[in-house]
Amino acid sequence: MTTQPKVPIQTFVDHENMCLVPPEDAAALSSALSEVMQNSALRERLKQGTAGLARHFEWPTIAHSTAQFFEHTIALCKF
After folding, report:
1. Which of 17, 23, 47, 56 is a Cys-bridge partner for 3, taking CB atoms 3.0 to 4.6 Å apart?
2. Residue 66 phi/psi, 5° resolution?
3. Mean pLDDT of the chain
4. What is the 3-state secondary structure (H, E, C) of 29-41?
5. What whole-number distance in Å separates Cα of residue 26 and Cα of residue 63?
6. What is the rounded CA–CA span in Å between residue 15 and residue 19?
7. Does residue 14 contact residue 46 with C-beta atoms inside 8 Å?
8. How many other CB atoms sit within 10 Å of the CB of residue 46?
9. pLDDT of res. 79
10. pLDDT reported for residue 78
11. Above pLDDT 90, what percent of the chain?
12. Closest Cα to residue 20, out of 12, 40, 49?
């Protein structure tokens, strides 16, 4: 459960690996929490989805992505 980011993040998929709610919308947050509590199929889908999403935040993945970014950036700077 988190707020909708200002810039879309492709790996964040509403009702698949998290529930996205509008910022500063207590009613939407309450509704989303109730939905998750009452819907076991949704809870299971979120459980499976978050396991897949977690891989994007492991240090080896982050380090690899960072290295690729800098390699690409350096390659663009070569004349």
Report:
1. 23
2. -65, -45
3. 95
4. HHHHHHHHHHCHH
5. 36
6. 5
7. no
8. 19
9. 65
10. 77
11. 92
12. 12
Q: What is the pLDDT of residues 31-66, one digit of tens each?
A: 999 999 999 999 999 999 999 999 988 999 999 999
Q: DSSP letter at 62?
A: H
Q: Strand, coil or helix: what is 9? A: coil
Confidence of residue 30 (pLDDT cuts 50, 70, 90): very high
Instruction: State both tokens at 11.
Output: 């790996």
Q: How far apart are CA 19 and CA 53, in angstroms?
A: 13
Report the DSSP beta bridge partners of residue 18. 14
> CA 50, 52, 58, 63 torsion: positive or negative?
negative
14 forms beta bridges with 18
